[in-house]
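Q: Structure tokens for this one, please.
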Amino acid sequence: MRALFLLLLWTWSATAVAQTTYKCLDAQRRVTYSNITCEKQGLQDGGPVAERTTSMPFTEPPKPAPSKPSATPPPATEPAKVPSEIPKK
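A: Here is the predicted structure, written as tokens:
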């Protein structure tokens, strides 16, 4: 059972690594990248695709500007007036 599991794991990892990217050119010489061969798409081969990883260095996000306290306090709202007696009809 363990050997079968290892064989399946090896097969899946080999399939994932084997995926290739193709660089193809159309009639106007525009480049298209795909995982499907250029011949199947009716395009010309554009040459090899270099395997590379693009990464950016980490930079600290800018700190927010401190909020300035307002010189005048916000207008106060009056509480709703509640009648002391309910008028009778």
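A few notes: The mean pLDDT is 78. DSSP finds two helices and three strands in the chain.
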